[in-house]
């Protein structure tokens, strides 16, 4: 028998790509190695490193990851967070405490469910983990779609880096296992998942960062982002507001068109509607 | 009034006692300390040690547990497993691989559920964790009612001691949290319901309509909403985009400020940043 025009093969369900783990400015190589082991424990393969303090590659990391060298060997290095997340369409930020940001707060379990849902649709997802002592900076958290917090004892909330990675990986794996057992896991769409995207696709992080830069440059020109000491907070507020709605690539183009139109309005003088008055 | 023989106070619902953690022949003090930290993270208080290789008390353990000294200080020492588990009515054994034993095999999640159920009935429960390299011996596992296995990647299954304790503690805590919220299961509203709104409130429909009118008037002035036959579609697209994000009253004020700033930018000529060029 020969294949006919239409493909006779049964397509396997598109492989779901596990989220990448992004370690921001990790200090000790041994913590990077331990995080890589935790990833390997639960089948996460892609590690991205943003400016590790002691440089890269790291012997300490390789040693601490012993038994799981593949993750460390494939790790990729980035200069800053925007570069590390540019291609992702869904980004989570792990934090140990609540921030004054209007963002959804997910448990590791709900985070895994969100990640799974999006990965199943072909989205590229990632999870940010902060520095050992100080965690993520507010500007880094502001780039994420949602925050992940583990339900720790408030009196003793500090998880080390590898443990935080472990919990996210563990919940990811639980879902994968549940699925391979043919169980229906709780994946019902809440909120954004209900969006019909039509022909468009979620905006990449690079497109969002372009939108932020465009808006902020115009607002700087207008004097809106003043006084200077309030600028960082104002910028984070605006970014959080825009991130809350899971913008598509089409949305980003629309908003950039709106910004350009608003700033152009007065360069051209009164519009035709007014001219005719 | 004096207290009578029997306590006159109304007892609160019997406090559910968290399971104890039993480390069997742990080798390194630092691993005991790390396990104690993981316990503290999730509100487990009772640590029992069976014949730690390097003796007890251990400076290395105290150092590794820094920040969570209470668990280490209250730890109790036993000569063997039977002595350490004598008072328990329900005992679990953690293992990394299946044993040839006819025992129920639980995930950390089901284990937590089982532990909770029994603790709520006043049972004293515990979980055995084995030596760093070799785990529990078969005779030790045989003492347990059931086995706990984490759903690890079979190609890289080794969890360290503190990580194994962490997963059990984490699942225990998840249940406790879910209960304290009066809900059956964990916990997270994905999407908008998870937003921490802080001091603000959802925008009223009138505030939203005011925002739409403001934006659309400015876009009319700029000539953005043209040609006229496309205007209705463009307006609907913009409104949908804004409605998708469940704006708060504060968001509406922010956005109206942004619109005003963008349209004013060129009325005032170049901003101060440009003037100084």
- Strand arrangement in the largest pleated sheet of chain A: 3-2-1-6-4-7-5
Task: Return the average pLDDT of chain A rounded to an integer.
Answer: 83
Biggest chain-to-chain interface with counts:
A-B, 77 and 74 residues
**What distance lies between the first and last C-alpha atoms of chain A, to the nearest angstrom?**
76 Å
User: How much of the sequence of chain A is in beta strands?
Assistant: 5-15%
Largest sheet descriptor of chain A: 7 strands, parallel
Helix percent of chain A reads: 40-55%
User: Which regions of chain A have little confidence, pLDDT < 50, spanning 5+ residues?
Assistant: 1-14, 181-197, 269-277
| Shape designation of chain A | globular
Beta-strand segment tally of chain A: 7
Number of helices of chain A: 11
Order of helices and strands of chain A: EHEHHEHEEHEHEHHHHH
The radius of gyration of chain A is: 22 Å
Strand pairing plus helix content of chain A: what structural class?
alpha/beta
What does this structure look like?
- 2 copies of one chain form a homodimer.
- Chain A is of the alpha/beta class and 277 residues long.
- Chain A has 11 helices and 7 strands.
- Chain A has helices at residues 29-41, 59-64, 69-74, 81-85, 108-120, 138-142, 161-180, 205-222, 231-243, 249-264, 272-275, and strands at residues 20-24, 47-50, 76-78, 90-94, 105-106, 125-129, 146-148.
- A 7-stranded parallel sheet of chain A has the order 3-2-1-6-4-7-5.
- In chain A, helix 1 (29-41) links the parallel strand 1 and strand 2 (47-50).
- In chain A, helix 1 (29-41) packs parallel to helix 7 (161-180) and helix 8 packs parallel to helix 10.
- The longest helix of chain A has 20 residues, at 161-180.
- Mean pLDDT of chain A is 83; it is low at 1-14, 181-197 and 269-277.
């Amino acid at each position: 028998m020969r294949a006919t025009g239409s493909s006779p093969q049964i397509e396997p369900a598109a492989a779901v790509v596990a989220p990448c783990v992004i370690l921001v400015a990790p200090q000790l190589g041994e913590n990077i190695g331990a995080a890589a082991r935790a990833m390997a424990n639960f089948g996460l393969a892609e590690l991205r490193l943003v400016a590790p303090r002691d440089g890269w590659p790291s012997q300490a990391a390789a040693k601490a990851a012993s038994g799981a060298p593949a993750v460390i060997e494939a790790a990729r290095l980035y200069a800053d967070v925007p570069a590390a997340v540019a291609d992702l369409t869904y980004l989570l930020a792990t934090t140990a405490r609540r921030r004054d940001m209007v963002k959804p707060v997910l448990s590791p379990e709900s985070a895994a469910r969100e990640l799974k849902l999006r990965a199943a649709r072909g989205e590229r997802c990632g999870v940010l983990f902060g520095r050992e002592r100080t965690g993520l900076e507010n500007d880094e958290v502001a780039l994420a779609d949602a925050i992940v917090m583990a339900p720790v004892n408030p009196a003793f909330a500090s998880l080390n880096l590898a443990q935080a990675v472990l919990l996210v990986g563990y919940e990811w794996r639980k879902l994968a296992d549940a699925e391979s057992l043919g169980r229906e896991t709780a994946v019902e769409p809440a909120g954004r998942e209900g969006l019909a995207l039509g022909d468009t696709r979620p905006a990449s992080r690079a497109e969002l960062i372009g939108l932020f830069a465009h808006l902020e440059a115009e607002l700087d020109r207008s004097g809106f982002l003043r006084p200077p000491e309030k600028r960082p907070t104002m910028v984070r507020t605006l970014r959080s507001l825009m991130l809350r709605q899971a913008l598509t690539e089409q949305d980003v183009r629309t908003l950039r068109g709106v910004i350009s139109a608003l700033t152009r309005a007065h360069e051209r003088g009164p519009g035709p509607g007014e001219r005719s008055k």
